[in-house]
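FAQ

Q: What does a record look like?
A: Structure on top, sequence underneath. For example:
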């Protein structure tokens, strides 16, 4: 019901005490709220400080874990496991063989912030950006060839004298016959990266240099009066490996020269004879397997 105009109603009549109480409560409430806010802000600041400290600790733990992982990966790549001394008690003074791998695709470049061994799978974009053909960068050919040479019964029997590898850029290094080359390509790439940067790799617990860069030309390191045989599919001299080696590997050391590249032909002045062992083009690893099998048969190595 609407009250008439002009009639005044005192709503707060006879309530002064109550008003004072409400005013006091209103004054007390902001103080209490301020205290609560101050406590909350202090709690928040403490939480923020603790969270920042926890984040710093987590970052430190992450960096420490990353450093440990990097150190572990470095140990896996260039540590004592891939490079192991073998038993050299089987080395003999009988005529042996020497393998030379020419034009090996082993090149180091700075990709991003680190130096890496270039290969066609991982660095195709980098190679194309620098106007290079990715098909020419095949370090896996050298890896497979070295595994085939060092795992052969000819090497186990002590008839392998030395292995030399010359890169496409002309860097020459020696691989000792008692070296154990890493099985995986990633570790092999780490070993080659360390070799090309530090020029040598020593044995664990020993100062012997298992892999070391040496001076050119390679002829200065080959056995005296040895026969140098080169292998090329383009050679007109097609031979059966076992019959051919039975006439040349009996009295003196023999040097086998093969190309460790994806395509092309080796052209070396020190080679005495070029032969072809198949009517079909063969990979370097399979060509080495045929050579080692023929040598094992002729020398009665089982």
């Amino acid at each position: 019901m609407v009250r008439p105009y002009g009639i005044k109603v005192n709503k707060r009549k006879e309530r002064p005490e109550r008003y004072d109480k409400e005013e006091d409560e209103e004054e007390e409430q902001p103080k209490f709220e301020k205290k609560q806010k101050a406590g909350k802000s202090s709690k928040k600041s403490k939480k923020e400080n603790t969270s920042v400290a926890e984040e710093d600790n987590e970052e430190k733990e992450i960096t420490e874990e990353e450093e440990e992982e990097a150190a572990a990966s470095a140990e896996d790549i260039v540590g004592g496991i891939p490079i192991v001394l073998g038993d050299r008690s089987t080395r003999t003074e009988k005529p042996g063989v020497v393998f030379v791998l020419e034009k090996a695709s082993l090149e180091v470049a700075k990709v991003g912030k680190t130096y890496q061994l270039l290969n066609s799978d991982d660095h195709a974009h980098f190679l194309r950006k620098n106007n290079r053909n990715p098909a020419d960068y095949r370090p896996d050919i050298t890896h497979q060839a070295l595994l085939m040479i060092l795992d052969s019964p000819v090497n186990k029997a002590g008839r392998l004298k030395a292995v030399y590898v010359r890169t496409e850029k002309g860097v020459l290094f020696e691989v000792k016959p008692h070296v154990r080359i890493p099985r995986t390509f990633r570790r092999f790439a780490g070993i080659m990266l360390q070799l090309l940067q530090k020029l040598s790799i020593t044995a664990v617990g020993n100062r012997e240099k298992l892999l070391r860069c040496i001076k050119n030309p390679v002829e200065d390191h080959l056995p005296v009066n040895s026969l140098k045989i080169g292998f090329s599919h383009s050679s007109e001299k097609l031979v059966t490996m076992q019959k051919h080696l039975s006439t040349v590997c009996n009295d003196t050391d023999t040097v086998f020269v093969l190309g460790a590249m994806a395509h092309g032909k080796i052209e070396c002045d020190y080679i005495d004879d070029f032969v072809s062992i198949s009517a079909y083009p063969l990979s370097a690893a399979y060509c080495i397997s045929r050579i080692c099998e023929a040598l094992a048969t002729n020398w009665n190595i089982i």
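Q: Is there anything notable about this one?
A: The first strand starts at residue 97 and ends at 104.
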